[in-house]
Amino acid sequence: MKNILFLVTLIVSPVFAHFLSITSAYADAIYDPATGTITLTSVLAGDGSSQTESIYATNVQVTAGEILSMGKAWPPYIHPSPWPAEVDFYDMATQELKISYIRTPDTSIELNDVVIKVGSVLGAGFSESISAGVADYKFRYVLDESLPNEWKNEFEIIMNNLQRDIPIYAKSEWYSMPIFAWKSDAERPLPFVSGGCICGGGGEGGHFRWMSLEISASEFEYNNIHRYSLVPHEYFHVYQLSHVDLPGFKWLMEGPAATLESIYVQEHYGIDYFSTAQGPNLSEQVRENPSSYESYSASREADINYSGSVFMTLVLSAELQKQGLSEVEAHRKIFRDFNLAKPTLENWEAKFLEVFLISVDSFYSIIKNYELSYDGLLPSEDLKISQIFSD
Ligand SMILES: [Zn+2]
């Protein structure tokens, strides 16, 4: 009943679309021992599925009911500025509120991942409902001043396109991530953030992840499309990571991400990044020893700009089309269905066979039959990402 009240309170609040993205850091959740009130900077309420509406609200005040987990001590040094305020998650299925980071006003208590039942809801600032089937995973942007406004504007457009076409759904352990973007000739936003990656860190206080977009200054100088294509590449890794558990496994993670990156720039900018930036780096190693592309270290020198991982992805698509699938269906199997099958390091070969109807060994031996070139393998120019991810 209390939980129903919690939702009703959120739903009746006004909708303010600009709260869709949090661009500046405020305090996180604050527990005031004097009044027993918890103020949540922002909270996402959902059930972990794409089937129901979610609610996003800011400045929500609640009291705690039962405390299910006290979380872990979270010393301030792992939460430095400009790390953006955390989002909390109310799981409508289990009716539990997970507070990412909570502190008292005097910071005498700082905890990570506290889980409570909500006592009562005292009020909310603003809220919006997110329709079923619309991405509710929350990215928190930290876009450095060193980036031109043109880049920042384009970044927002790209993120909106990606969230529309490749929706990522929030769930209890996976609902929000900061994105740090800056120009490479400026100072890093935080000492531990560098390069282009989905990176992780943390320790005793808990694990945390972020997206790092270090945009090379030379890419602005030479108008290199990679300054934008990095965004769909890294975004797709977040989509993958919401389903798969393949740490350290290379080609099935990087091949689709780098291929999707090229499909994105083909669809939105009319640029053939496959032929200009990836294909020229192809190495014979991909035909001679494709299994070496399972490992980052074993293929590091051969797989420049993921040329070989992309080649394997393109060959897989070609083989699926030989089975009778359309181009869109073949891409859907690779980019969506394989991920939805939740492959892990233990079961990925079985999942590969189940989804693609070809064993990994057969696939690896077929690669030798292909010329070392992207010729004849490139996706059609009219292939759209939205087609790949919808039925
Ligand atoms: Zn990558």
UniProtKB/TrEMBL annotation:
Keyword annotations from UniProtKB, A to Z: Signal
Q: What is the residue range of the signal peptide feature? A: 1-17
Q: What is this protein called?
A: Peptidase MA-like domain-containing protein
Which source organism? Answer: OM182 bacterium BACL3 MAG-120507-bin80
The organism that produces this protein has a lineage beginning with: Bacteria, Pseudomonadati, Pseudomonadota, Gammaproteobacteria, OMG group
